[in-house]
């Protein structure tokens, strides 16, 4: 490996976790709940905080991948999946950034590059996507709750409300999502595996391949959140 490659690899691995993912197993046998604050700081020094009390289930990783990589909390990608799950629920940042931080966090956790490529392709293909409108609304709702709390001098439980309070917002507003149709089927995972098997494959190449196989539809109004 040449010096340039070593430098690129070091840059990729420059993210770091803040705290440990200490969780409580919930009775449903699927979900876990954080008992301590946890987070990831990416290579650009952006914080990806997940608050104590957050409940995640690994659902942001498409089930089609489970037969290849195991369940959501079984491998070295566990900590990365907690961060990814939370921000897929929050939708307070662009979906592209949320999926990419999953890739970076996996490498930081010691996931092999080829495996991280495959899992990134999986979430880019079958993971959730949302519109810029959703991101703006989620941040606006979060900021509004903070302003209300300061004005009324009330306490908001950070495990319940918005990112400004390091928690989940559930405001009243119409949620406009981009709906995607995926021509790729589970049987096509072998094609994705071939694309991602090259350690030198970059994320742009993976995205280009998935996009070439995916038909995006116009945004649709899907409903409302209730508090």
Give a written overview of the molecule.
This protein has helices at residues 3-12, 66-69, 78-90, 95-108, 113-126, 132-152, 189-196, 203-212, and strands at residues 16-18, 23-25, 32-34, 38-41, 47-50, 55-56, 174-181, 215-224. The protein is an alpha+beta fold and 227 residues long. It has one domain (11-224). A three-stranded antiparallel beta sheet has the order 1-4-5, covered by helices on one side. Helix 4 packs antiparallel against helix 5 (113-126). It is globular, with a radius of gyration of 18 Å.
Keywords for this entry:
3-stranded antiparallel beta sheet, disordered N terminus, 227 residues, globular, 8 strands, disordered C terminus, alpha+beta
Shape verdict: globular
Secondary structure tally: strands = 8
The N- and C-terminal alpha carbons lie at a distance of 53 Å
Computed Rg: 18 Å
Low-pLDDT windows of residues? 1-11, 154-181, 217-227
> What's the number of domains?
1
Largest sheet, strands/sense/barrel: 3 strands, antiparallel
Mean pLDDT: 74
Amount of beta strand = 15-25%
Structural class: alpha+beta
How would you briefly describe this protein structure?
The chain is α+β, with helices and mostly antiparallel strands and 227 residues long.
Secondary structure blueprint with pairings:
Layout: H1 3-12, E1 16-18, E2 23-25, E3 32-34, E4 38-41, E5 47-50, E6 55-56, H2 66-69, H3 78-90, H4 95-108, H5 113-126, H6 132-152, E7 174-181, H7 189-196, H8 203-212, E8 215-224
Antiparallel strand pairs: 1-4, 2-3, 3-6, 4-5, 7-8
């Amino acid at each position: 490996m040449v010096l340039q490659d070593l430098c690129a690899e070091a840059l990729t691995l420059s993210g770091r976790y803040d705290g440990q993912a200490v969780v409580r197993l919930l009775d449903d046998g699927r979900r876990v709940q954080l008992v301590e604050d946890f987070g990831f700081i990416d290579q650009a020094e952006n914080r990806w905080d997940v608050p104590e009390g957050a409940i995640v289930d690994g659902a942001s990783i498409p089930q089609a991948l489970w037969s290849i990589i195991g369940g959501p909390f079984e491998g070295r990608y566990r900590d990365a999946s907690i961060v990814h799950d939370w921000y897929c629920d929050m939708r307070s940042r662009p979906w592209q950034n949320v999926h990419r931080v999953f890739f970076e966090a996996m490498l930081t956790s010691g996931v092999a590059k080829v495996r991280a490529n495959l899992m990134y392709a999986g979430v880019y293909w079958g993971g959730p996507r949302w519109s810029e409108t959703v991101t703006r609304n989620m941040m606006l709702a979060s900021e509004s709750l903070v302003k209300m709390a300061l004005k009324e001098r009330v306490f908001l439980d950070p495990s319940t409300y918005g990112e400004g309070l390091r928690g989940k917002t559930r405001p009243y507003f119409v949620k406009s999502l981009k709906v995607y149709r995926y021509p790729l089927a589970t049987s096509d995972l072998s094609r994705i595996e071939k694309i991602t098997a090259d350690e030198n494959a970059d994320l742009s190449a993976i995205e280009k391949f998935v996009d070439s196989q995916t038909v995006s539809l116009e945004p649709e109004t899907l409903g409302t959140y209730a508090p």
